[in-house]
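FORM 7B: Structural annotation worksheet

SECTION A. Query
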Amino acid sequence: MEEILIDERNGLFCLNTKNTCYIFGKTEKGRLFHCHYGLQVDSARYCKRYDKNVYSFCPYPSDEDEFFSYESAPNEYSVFGSGSFSAFSFSARSADGRIYGDLRFVGYSVDEFPEQAEFMPRARNKSRSLKVMLADVTNSVQAELYYYPFFEEDIIVRQVIIKNNSAQEITLQKAYSYCLDLPEGKYECIEFAGRYGMERIPVRSRLNGVKCIRSTAGVSGHKTNPFFALVSSDATEEHGEAYGFNLIYSGNFCNEIDVNQLGCVRICGGINAETFSWRLKSGECFVTPEAVLTYSGKGIGQLSRNFHDFIRRHIIDPNFAFAPRPVVANTWEAAYFSLDEKSVLALASTAAKAGADTVVIDDGWFADRRNDTAGLGNWKIDEEKFPSGFRGLESKLRGTGMKLGIWIEPECVNMGSMTFSEHPEWLLQGDGLLSRSQYVLDMANADVIDYLFENISALLRSADFSYVKWDMNRYITDCFSATLPACRQGEFYHRYVLGVYRLFWRLKSAFPQIFFEGCCGGGGDVKIKPKHLDTIVATKKLQIEGMSCINCQNRIENALNGMAQVNAKASFKKGEAIVKLGVDIPEEELREAVEKLGYKVTSIELM
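SECTION B. Predicted structure
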């Protein structure tokens, strides 16, 4: 089966994977419309284009008949100002304020791969590509729509590149990576919300009106992440239709789901336009992040497997994609800031007997780090804690058979640290908001990236490290970069993420043998305060298995205190939670609140 089929006669484009096909076409006037995304079908059935009997009282292009409207026609890439008032994927203005609102087909090519933005993450091993070119009537702005089918995984990757062909500068206001119009249907949305200690909580809701899944915090995280799925109302793990969407991107994102008055659903997404603008000089282009789409006709489980297979084969570093993961003993909850060489060696000895193979030296290893308020940004080992240095510690670890790992949080500094003192101009310039006494470095500044690369490289050369835990706790509040002129401050969030990617790939290239693992937890560490109860109708003790630390304790307290008329206090040392009830709540509800976190309630007794 050909992965990319072009029906020149009927103006149709068909992308095939093992079990699915994606079809769109163009009108005689050069407008793209979406036809089908789902199980394999005969593309010939879509030659009739779109249903002209269904239209709305909306503006229509002057060169079309009154039965054509972008509002009722299924769009392939929606544009602001085109007459469609549902969610749109693209908006740009010329220097005089004119909107580029009518992009039309000008050509296509097969197996032409674009030049990518430097260090932008992307899917590997693309075998085929389809490029469809759209342009406004003056050819001042060109949008190149890229489609990459991954046959075995039933995945379609999409991407857009915007080019400024005019003689003047233009400003991008919105540049999403994809758009997909689905026919009328009763879909439900599955997303994963959460907070620290309660990450990836599935939320399933019926679609109605407009829904946005987004981040404005500078990065994605446990609060929101760019994955979501649309499923038929009867979908289960094994049965029903399911569409999955994700972005290969770590910055501010937005996924929009818009159900119009005709019951049709438009999905589009990419870089969040609320915190984005980008100036393009004549001849310049902008590359959007890649978006990953998949379809399953066999339920949500198959959707998950499509993503799993794709990520392992085409996203994760091939050196580690199929290799066993290290079994890690981390110093953080064992010693917190009180770690030293002696405690690390003791932990390693005990952990080795339990089957661990790597000990990770977490926060507190560098100079002046005794608590959250000082030291972050000092990339020199604390010689008082580690008199033998990391090389000497590594030598002593060999007797336990343990490998050595290290913790870093390069984008943040404390006041008074070496980095802060030497380069105060590198901090993001704003109102001085703090989180855990941390300021954020301007990762859009190339000098910052060079500095961090040199210091972290020196650290990783100081011993035979096999593992790096890269923390990124801090959301961005002070979003003004001293390196950007006023007219380009809207570019900061994207440039910040590109800077993070640049540092990461430079380190990965220099140290390919090291396993890098991302960690982001502290930014959402919110503890729900126990409620005051006017009356207490019952007090119950829950015996709980699986609590091993203060974080476990906090997770359980948050889950219980999030329930109405509940005041709970947990103890990981005692393995219990004391729950005061303002109303009679069934024991099964209390049990469910705890066990959905992965712990086991062994008994509930009335006190």
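SECTION C. Observations
The chain has three domains: 4-314, 328-524, 538-606. DSSP finds nine helices and 31 strands in the chain.

SECTION D. Sign-off
Analyst initials: ____
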